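**Protein record**
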Amino acid sequence: MEIINKTIDDGKAFDWGRTSVDYAKYRDIYPEIFYEKIKNRNLCVRGQKVLDLGTGTGVLPRNMYHFGVEWYGIDISDNQIMQAKNISDKMGMKIHYQTIAAENVDFSDDTFDVITACQCFWYFDDEKVMPILSRILKSNGRLLLLYMAWLPFEDEIAGASENLVLKYNPKWTGAGETKHPIYVSDCVQEVFEIAYHEEYNVEIPFTRETWNGRMKACRGVGASLSQEEIEKWEIEHQMLLQSIAPDKFNIKHYVAMLELKQKNK
């Protein structure tokens, strides 16, 4: 499913389905503390029914499945959902997946205890999505937004890799990340208010192969460049890593979480 949004990459088209194989292999990298902090907020725990928006290859539902959650995952990409189903089925996990845009979900009123959106909330049309989320979320339910990003100005390897993405995709707006809270639009704030937020630093272990795969599976490379451009980028990136990175290394990241509750429901 090709997506074009003028506020993202200056309108350059991208399709997460083109990255699905690499996404499944290289983007399941959140550390244990990421999931523990969610659980410690009494979110995505036993007895709850949770909807994961933009689930991708099902990373969040799979990694929190053992907490006893009834998980539903939706994504706009058929390829992403196919990967999610295949991986979850092989692991014996009963997770309900559906290919559908967040703007088109049609669950019954007051269905979910928690709705999660990890690495994806800015892709949605807030004006269309917020009334839907408010309707299908229980009155005491929570909307949980999650984000993790490398820190290019604090980590030499991350910064060099990011610069190479910009060489091939100069209008990529995923570059230049710094640690900050998750911001939401006025449209979201009309319906929800902040219950909790936290930002914290983590270091994620990689090898040259897995870091190359992680970068290749980002929007600025695998989801938007032509196959010829991807191949050229990958050759250059592998040469770059040979010159600056040891066999194993950590990349500095930060994580942000924003827990929202409904105002008037």
